[in-house]
Amino acid sequence: MKQLNKHNIAIIPGDGIGPEVINSGLKVIRRSLRLDNISIKEKVYNWGSNYYKKHQLMMPKNGLEKLKQHNAIFFGAVGDEKIADDITLWGLRLKICQGLDQFANIRPSKYIEGIKSPLDKKIAKNIDWLIVRENSEGEYAGSGGIVHRDLPIEIGSEVAIFTKEGCRRIHDYAFKLALKRPRKHLTLITKSNAQRHGMKLWDKMFYEVKRKYPTIKTEKLLVDAATAVMVNNPEKIDVMVATNLHADILSDLASALSGSLGIGATANISTDKKIPSMFEPIHGSAFDIVGKNIANPIGAIWSGMMMLEHLGEKKSAARIFKAIKIYANKNGPFTPDLGGIASTDQVTNEILKLLD
Ligand code: GGG
């Protein structure tokens, strides 16, 4: 039977272990789609730190225009030992997220039987969270600068920017996601006791949007208290909405509590249907383990699954999640971050086998 070629995907493997895990993710999504008689059109963009070393840019000037020709972007990681982290992050990942206005960053964390959490199993079993990260402004607005450079009186400012519309749209997105989940519960993460301006606007817009969603139960938690609740009482949380920086930190914690940073997945969503959304593992380039074939591919595979869901390929996506669950339930084999000795390839092959 002729295969349907429906989706045109941009692939940016990026730096460090990015190419290794993206390779695994692609194998898995291609195979799952093929079982549904669908193929994807792929275009690889070798942007990132190696590109920077030749061109002093992390991606070409017309990079965003090129990406707009695709239905989705599958991204690996960014970061290099020899280039300052702010150059690599701002030159690629943030340039894409902010340039394409992918303002909602969605980060699921779920306990999966078989994957060992640092928490007691009785507690870890209750992890089923969705972190909604504001992805366009806040602490990552890029507002600030250095004055009196290199003098003894040098100062640096880093101004978090919260706009009314930026707060409104991310809260609205979070309420809509909470509405789709059985518990219908949304936690507002804030720090408005200490940060009295931007964070107060953040809170105010939450309660304004809340009026539209009378069936959603809500709770407000200070970000510091939220870390303790996540560790001690994971059942108290369902969906959380948090600022760019707070959610970045909380989602690393969430991933570690559900097993490892290596299994965290994320979607950077643009609600404009003409603009592609971007899917990536939450981990970075991890240059300490590059080329060792031990990077955990689950985060990339899970991100690929989120991309298929987003593209409407629900059946292929559900098959991937089922394979991940069976793989974990029968004890792997796991990569070292999850306490095993398996290679990236072994894990990938195991999941491919389970798809069939
Ligand atoms: N795949 C995600 C990635 O490469 N992240 C690199 C990083 O440094 N991220 C920091 C951030 O996005 O806040």
Largest sheet: 10 strands, mixed
| Side-by-side strand order of the widest sheet | 2-1-3-12-11-4-5-10-8-9
CATH topology of the largest domain: Isopropylmalate Dehydrogenase
> Kindly state the mean pLDDT as a whole number?
97
Q: What is the CATH homology-level superfamily of the largest domain?
A: Isopropylmalate Dehydrogenase
Keywords:
single chain, 356 residues, alpha/beta, Isopropylmalate Dehydrogenase, two-stranded antiparallel sheet, 12 strands, binds glycylglycylglycine
Descriptive notes:
By secondary structure, the chain is α/β, with parallel strands linked by helices. It has 2 domains: 1-107 and 265-356, 3-Layer(aba) Sandwich (Isopropylmalate Dehydrogenase), CATH 3.40.718; 117-258, 3-Layer(aba) Sandwich (Isopropylmalate Dehydrogenase). It has 12 helices and 12 strands. It has helices at residues 18-35, 49-55, 63-67, 85-99, 121-124, 164-179, 198-210, 223-232, 244-257, 298-310, 314-329, 344-355, and strands spanning 4-14, 38-44, 72-77, 104-110, 128-134, 138-147, 155-161, 185-190, 217-222, 239-242, 265-269, 277-281. The strands form 2 sheets. It has a 10-stranded mixed sheet, with helices on both faces. A two-stranded antiparallel sheet has the order 6-7. Helix 6 packs across helix 7 (198-210). It is globular. Residues 77-79, 89, 93, 248, 280-282, 284 line the site of glycylglycylglycine.
